[in-house]
Amino acid sequence: MRSLKHIATGVLIAGLSFGSIGTANAQVRPTRTPGAAFDAAKQACDTAINNRLSRITTLQRLINDSQHVTSDHRSTLLSQLASASNGLSQLKAKIGSDADPSTLRTDCRNIVQDFRIYVLVSPKVREVLVSDWETDIASRLSTIAGKIQTAIDSAKAKGKDVTTAQSDLAQMKTAIANANAAIGGVATSVINLQPSDWPGAHDTLVTGRQSLRTGRDDLRTARDDGRNAAQALRQS
Predict the structure, then answer these.
(1) Which residues contact 211 (CB under 8 A, 6 or more apart)?
(2) Which whole-number Å values give the CA distances from 127 to 63, 99, 106, 147, in the listed order?
(3) Cα–Cα distance between 98 and 159 in angstroms, integer?
(4) Looking at 59, 90, 113, which one is the last position of a domain?
(5) Is there a single domain that holds both residue 155 and residue 122?
């Protein structure tokens, strides 16, 4: 059986590390036996899987609780999360039966490499949910813009000066169009990203996040422009 150093090094490669045992003032730290170190490494990997399973449960709840996610996106994301959960559960069982450090090291590494729950799955799910939410808000703002336009047309027919209101509404419509342009391709670009796409998927996620921020800012601008248009109409 390999030494504690070799086992700890293998686990570190998998994204996990184990601190030395001992008090802050101890000059000599007690050394675990190879068997104890192996068991500790196995436990650490098991904990890493449990944490990821917990994250998946949280993501599933976010999806199910969302009032804006489309049915297609909901179905796709929940299916992906179920697959990841099953895969991690199977890996958990395998790690529990691992009998040598080399196999354990490989399996612990796969917790990260084969699933990417924290760096890929979590942000992907959140970006899809935010994209659908912003798309819904843009749609609602478009409906409001239509009602404002109807009110402007009615006021204009009565001889009122609606120049300012019409200008504010035009800006509102432009902001909505800009938001839709920013949001439009985000969900499609990220929803099918897989662990095997890493690290290239990182850039796709970053781009998606930036687009959603731009879309959010455009929607805020559209909201403010709509308020200005309504206020100008009341004062006309």
Answers:
(1) 182, 183, 185, 186
(2) 11, 40, 31, 30
(3) 83
(4) 113
(5) yes
Distant-in-sequence contacts of 67-71, Cβ < 8 A, 24+ apart: 68/129, 68/132, 68/133, 68/135, 68/136, 69/128, 69/129, 69/132, 69/133, 70/132
Check pLDDT > 80 for residue 26.
no
Sign of the dihedral defined by the CA atoms of residues 108, 113, 118, 122, in that order? negative
Instruction: Find the angle CA(177)-CA(181)-CA(184) to the nearest 5 degrees.
Output: 125
Residue 77 tokens, joined: 């994301």
Query: pLDDT per residue over 46-94, tens digit each?
Result: 999 999 999 999 999 999 999 999 999 999 999 999 999 999 999 999 9
Residue with tokens 């490989």: 106
Q: At what angle do helices 4-13 and 34-65 cross, to 10 degrees?
A: 20
Pair of tokens at residue 207: 């781009």
CB atoms within 10 A of CB 217: 14
CA 207 to mean position of chain CA atoms: 13
pTM of the model: 0.83
User: Which pLDDT value is given to residue 31?
Assistant: 54
Residues 107 and 214 in one domain: no
Number of domains observed in the structure of the chain: 2
* Close Cβ partners of 124 (under 8 Å, ≥ 6 residues apart): 190, 191, 193, 205
